[in-house]
Amino acid sequence: MTAKPKIPVKKQADSVQESHFLQRHPLIMPLISFVLLFMIGLGAFVSVGGQTVGASDTHIAIVYYDGKQQTVPTRAKNVEDLLQRLTITIGAKDIVEPSLATPIVEDNFIVNVYRSRSVEIVDGQSRTIVQTASKSPRAVTKEAGLSLFTEDTVSFVRAESDLKGPIVAERLVIERSIPLQVSLYGVLGQYRTTAKTITGFLEQKNILLKSGDTTQPSNVEEALVPGMLLSINAEGRSIISVEEPIPFGVQTRNNPAVLAGKQTTVQEGVQGKRAVLYEQIMQDGVEVDRRQIQTVTLQEPVAQIVEKGTLAAATYSVSSDKAALMAAAGIDPSQFASVDYIIQKESNWRPGAINSQGCIGLAQRCPIGGNNALVAACPNWQTDPVCQLNHFSAYANGRYGSWNNAYQVWVVQRWW
After folding, report:
1. What is the pTM of this model?
2. Distance between the two ends of the chain, CA-based, in angstroms?
3. Residue 136: which CATH number?
């Protein structure tokens, strides 16, 4: 019979004591396991995010982005640092509130990330698409470079699918207000409104007509138009608004490039408009007189601009030889001075003159496509000044109307 091994007395006693200890403390093993798991998890958390909950340098941050909420303890110094730790990417058009540079110095620190999206702005017949993260309609229109009056209305509407139109996340519609000139119980003022009728305007501006009050136009359902004159009168008082023209002025300026005595209108004048309020003086229901109360300019007049020539005509004498040649070419004597001036400048009256560009003759006819019209018109052009003068007269009259007109052009641009 094999003998059983003997257990040492000391080891057996330790085992008995350990068993008794565990029996007396049944929670010791779960507690040890929890501590070990906590230390392992804390080590992993620190290695991944570099964030631990401390008493003085850690704050609780709440981040809203992409339709989600994330609450985290953080040691991030500012908003940008926090978003980088959370791997939240910010686009160029996205908006972060507060700004990225804002320091995180308190608990329950809230950060909002607004993502940009495509918004189509409908402004009458004009449509503009912008990338924006703004939620305010007026902020979006400002980003698009559009100006608004206080009375203009702007609102987001559902972007219905349009196979032909652009694909956008939202659509924003601008309703433009129109200007009105309104006499409110004798006080003329300028208003803007999006209302369509007189009744709509009164309701929009909270103007309540008392019994006996009247309007002019009298039909309160009349459609409003930009610049319309509207009068609201108390009982027993008749005030009318009349639109009258404002005459335009005339501005005259000198032009040294135009011959003296010649005058040209370079800008047509346009009459302005003004609204004049009159109180009607009535007698037996008939207007016998009217008293002007107030005047407001609706449209400034545009001045007419007239240019007067100050260029002195060529008055120097023409030699008898030149005069004889021009007369032989059928040129009117009233044009002699202009002809002489141009030819003197172009060729110094040398019929056979040729410049470096191949332009020839008294008035320097230049070739076109390798051919020169002067050669075709005057085969002996080098020795036939009368033929040349006939040829150049046809050019001057055809292009400028006369030699005198050609002279005005030449003195300005130094060629003709």
Report:
1. 0.46
2. 143
3. 3.10.20
